[in-house]
From TrEMBL, chain A:
Official protein name in the record: PadR family transcriptional regulator
Domain of life: Bacteria
PANTHER family referenced in this protein's UniProt entry, alphabetically: NEGATIVE TRANSCRIPTION REGULATOR PADR, TRANSCRIPTIONAL REGULATOR YQJI
Domain Transcription regulator PadR N-terminal: 7-78
UniProtKB/TrEMBL annotation, chain B:
MF (Gene Ontology): ATP binding; ATP hydrolysis activity; transmembrane transporter activity
The UniProt record lists the keyword Nucleotide-binding: yes
Domain of life where this protein originates: Bacteria
Keywords: ATP-binding, Nucleotide-binding, Transport
PROSITE patterns per UniProt: ABC_TRANSPORTER_2
Coiled-coil stretches: none
Membrane-spanning ranges: none
Residues of the ABC transporter domain: 5-223
Gene Ontology cellular component annotations, sorted alphabetically: plasma membrane
Record has ATP-binding as a keyword: yes
Protein name (database record): ABC transporter ATP-binding protein
Length: 174, 225
């Protein structure tokens, strides 16, 4: 995720200092990966250098970290452009699991075992996400659903591959 | 812990086609087990044999200390009414009865008087968050509501095992999830085991572990640590 654009987006509501921005980011987007202070300040200085934010005063009784930042017009344009540009869909063509299946078939090992082991591991993660979703708020539910749908896609591929193992075997060992 | 329900080496053919070819499964009390596998793999046949709806050609099904596979039909029917609950994909509610009467039906069949049966049925409709449809007929409810009524009916007798065959198959994602949440939560509260047949991983994720059926053979998977 683009941290710069996310921080810019958070600044659209009004000026904030670095610590405040980190807290806002972590609360909304940092569930599994909170920002380091270092990342916040490096990003802010880059945004400052590029004219996307500007300093907006210093809070009383403070060191440099209490400096407040405001988004500039150029910053707003940048956020708008980012939001309206679609993310590049992942092609998902580099697939470790596919390689494992082919190598298992080539070496005469049981490719079905490879798929079964993977299904089990996927389901363990899906169970954890399902529990987290049940205990969480709407934000948690949406984040977990995103992960669950991706894992489900893997599993559908896995089932389809399991059903075509015999055919794949005749093709790869030819 | 000892298995509550255990099937061993089940074989079952329909004409020349083998549906089960040595499948087995064991379920402990209070456990939610997902039976997964592609269409036609034999998972529904396995569920029907476990529940005593179908008799296997060979192999055994034990429930507590009884051998289901050698029990007379009448005794198996009685056991299904007293100890088992069922949720199917659709078509399980009696269309002429109200939802409340549908939920009360298994209790009425067990000899409980109408008032007591309907009062308990109402509690279950409340638990499944569908008291609003108590007086409606199944045909007047949405798919999600109908399925919750079916779950209430499956649980109203306090069964030890609930058999659910693609219980969310006809529902959209949100309704399907809610049905799964309510079904598994109610089963866990009452310590009922659930045998859940599904081909959907998101539904299977509500289970404690999965059993995979392929070509009539099953493979039990203990949860990875």
């Amino acid at each position: 995720m683009s941290i710069g654009h996310t921080l810019l987006g958070l600044l659209e509501k009004g000026p904030r200092h670095g610590y405040d921005l980190k807290r806002a980011y972590d609360e909304r987007f940092g569930q599994d990966r909170p920002l380091h202070y270092g990342q916040v300040y490096t990003t802010l200085s880059r945004l400052l250098r590029n004219g996307l934010v500007e300093e907006a005063g210093v809070e009383a009784g403070d060191g440099p970290e209490r400096k407040r930042y405001a988004i500039t017009d150029a910053g707003v344009t940048d956020v708008e452009k980012w939001l309206s540009t679609p993310e590049k869909p992942e092609p998902y063509l580099q697939n470790t699991l596919y390689s494992k299946v082919v190598l298992a078939l080539l070496s005469g090992r049981d490719a079905g075992d490879v798929l079964d082991t993977q299904r089990s591991a996927h389901l363990v993660t899906m169970r954890e996400l399902t529990k987290r979703k049940a205990a969480g708020d709407l934000a948690d539910q949406l984040i977990c659903d995103h992960a669950l749908f991706h894992l489900e896609a893997d599993l559908r591929w896995l089932e389809l591959t399991a059903a075509r193992l015999d055919r794949l075997k005749t093709e790869v060992v030819r | 812990m000892r298995a509550l329900l255990e099937a061993t080496n089940l074989r079952k053919s329909f004409g020349p086609t083998p549906a089960l070819d040595g499948a087995g499964l064991s379920v402990r009390a209070g456990e939610v087990v997902a039976v997964m596998g592609p269409s036609g793999s034999g998972k529904s046949t396995l569920l029907h044999c476990l529940a005593g709806i179908l008799q296997p050609d060979s192999g055994t099904v034990r429930y507590r200390d009884a051998e289901l596979s050698s029990m007379p039909d009448a005794q198996r029917s009685e056991l299904r009414r007293t100890d088992f609950g069922f949720v199917f994909q659709f078509g399980q509610l009696v269309p002429e009865l109200s939802c409340l009467e549908n939920v009360a039906l298994p209790l009425r069949l067990g000899g409980i008087k109408r008032r007591a049966a309907e009062s308990r049925a109402r509690e279950w409709l409340e638990r499944l968050e569908v008291t609003g449809v108590a007086d409606k007929r199944p045909g007047e409810t949405s798919g999600g509501q109908g399925q919750r009524v079916a779950v209430a009916r499956a649980l109203v007798t306090g069964p030890s095992v609930v058999f659910a065959d693609e219980p969310t198959g006809a529902l959209d994602s949100l309704n399907g999830e809610r049905v799964m949440q309510l079904l598994t939560a109610a089963a866990r509260e009452t310590n009922a085991a659930v045998v859940l047949v599904t081909h959907e991983a998101r539904v299977a994720a509500y289970s404690d572990r999965e059993v995979v059926v392929r070509d009539g053979k099953s493979r039990e998977v203990e949860p990875a640590r």
